[in-house]
Amino acid sequence: MPKSATTAKNKYNAKAYDRIALQVKKGQRDVIRAHAESKGMSLNGYINKLIEEDMKQG
Questions:
Q1: Which of 18, 22, 45, 56 might form a disulfide with 41, Cβ 3.0–4.6 angstroms?
Q2: At residue 24, what are phi and psi to the nearest 5 degrees?
């Protein structure tokens, strides 16, 4: 990928998204990612869905 395309994507992402660092015990990331993939989701999509559903429940 050309350097300018990467720069443009990084600039867009910085403007459009907030980042949250999440720490889990060693090995748990792979377990969570596999579970998300078993549901046809990315790790990020799975975490976002869980947060959204929990917030709807109040």
A1: 45
A2: -130, 160
